[in-house]
Write a structure and sequence with these properties.
By secondary structure, the chain is an alpha/beta fold. 38% of the residues lie in helices and 12% in strands. Helix 1 crosses helix 3 and helix 17 crosses helix 18.
Length: 612
Amino acid sequence: MVAVTKCIIFVACLVANFAVFSPYPLQSTDEQSAHMQKLRDVAYEEWTKFESTRQTNFELTGLLSMLECSLCKFGIGLLQRLLLMNATEEQIVSITTDICVFAKYETKRICQLVIPEFKDEVLYVVDKLVLSPEEACGILFGSSCGHSYDPRFFWNLTLPDIPKPPVNPPKPPKAGSPVSRVLQLSDLHYDREYRVGSKADCGEPLCCRDNDGMPGPSTPGAGKYGDYRNCDSPKILLENLFEHISSKEKFDYIMLTGDLPAHDVWNQTRSDQLLILDDITDMVLKYFPGVKVYPAVGNHESAPVNSFPPEFITGKYSISWLYNEFVNQWVHKAGWLPADTISTLKAGGYYTVQLEPHFRLVSLNMQMCNNQNYWLLLNATDPTGELEWLIDILQAAEINEEKVHIIGHNHPGSCTKAWGWNYYRIVNRYESTIVGQFFGHSHDDFFEMFYDEKTLSRPTNVAYVSGSVTPFQSLNPSYRIYEVDGSYKTTTRAVLDHHNYVLNLTDANLTNKPKWLHEYSAKKAYNMKSLQPADWQHVINNLKTNNTMFKDFYSYNQKLHVTTPCTGTCKEAMICKLETARTDDPNLCKDKFYTTLTQHDQWDYRRKNKKC
């Protein structure tokens, strides 16, 4: 899996397999210029420092967290030095490709494709970067990696000078009250190149594709409806899912929470991404005619992946090519969004829609908090003014007695620190207005808690993180339906329950009869009276002490395809993630349950379980 923080490091090298490192063996030949030799000498010097840091520190801290942090500093430092030495783009690509190959980050083919994919934009950012590697990597990975002293990268927005209304717990709806049903689809990752029967263990980040060839006679190939082995969604999986939902389920609208393209991020173009966007829009229109769909922007929508420049980046690096197409697809073609969303869609990929009187939906572009969006290293202060806009929307909603649901792709606990902490403050200020938050990105199934900022003990809100449609990596495809307090005078618009559905891929591929099964109801599975924040905190408390409940929770988290058990530090890290809706906060996860968990353990858990 590609992480764009590593694209900064090696102009997009892949490090998912964490192969054994080789010494950097690059030596210039007689034909190479003296300048190129100096550049390679610098690369060797930086590599030697990185190797020394790695060997000294990896035993003392979490392996994966320290690896990413050290690689980040090495990569940015190397690129900055090469640019100061007036290295050409061609020379930098040559050196970083050699590093990628010799360090065994990925196959030679992937290294030779992925670096050109990212080189233009990454080199532009690094060339204009005023931060040191320590500062830049601290922004991306948090204070355990480094610190930035630039106020542009840890900032606070001013909330309106209007007192927060008293918090009154909502009353449960009376029996027989109207209930709305809302479908959430997330992380479809449609692979147009999927080929049934092809190699599913291909040695690359994404397999089951046309160019992977066929496996040996004793090795099963890619399944018809998908595969657990690093493969994305074939078209037949999406069509079967949409056909099943359209014929079996009833719902009022769809939340489509991002990540439509596949994970072949080393070989994507803008036209590729727009084609996928068009294909998915057509499929949804075909199977759900007349149904309103509210999309959110995923990190894979752009090319290169995670590249979402703020509004001050214009010209050939501007993101307008994508935002304009959102308008074309979602407003003009599909008619899902009204015309008054166009201005904010074009400005920043976010919007708000009034669903009914006193009920509003907000779709946030969470790529403005994505710690793999390297453009934020130039200036991360509320990019595109999205959070200022959100404050205005929520304050108006409070005045007008509206309830608000927020949707997005990246979940808040994965955000850059400054953006995430400001969002946390906003959610707490408007806790009586925001009655639902819905995200995706992680591919597995969990939730994140918000607490009052004074004591970090009173639950104020919950963010739901739904599982993916794609089986990437080693998960069953899934979708979710929420039951929400419906349309009547005293409605709370609160989430009353949610139901998860999964497809057993093994069974579907063996029988050629895919069956989408009801996996669980949150209310029944966890014996909840309601789904208010306090009730979810009660679930967390039970997960800490009830091993049977935690085992069930972990099975649901993995969508009924558990490959390894989660005990000890894994269990502590997973439950800590539920209590951490803002990143890099040392004051969370401090009760007596956490006996061994360190900050590096938390980062390692997130990194090991990262599938997006």
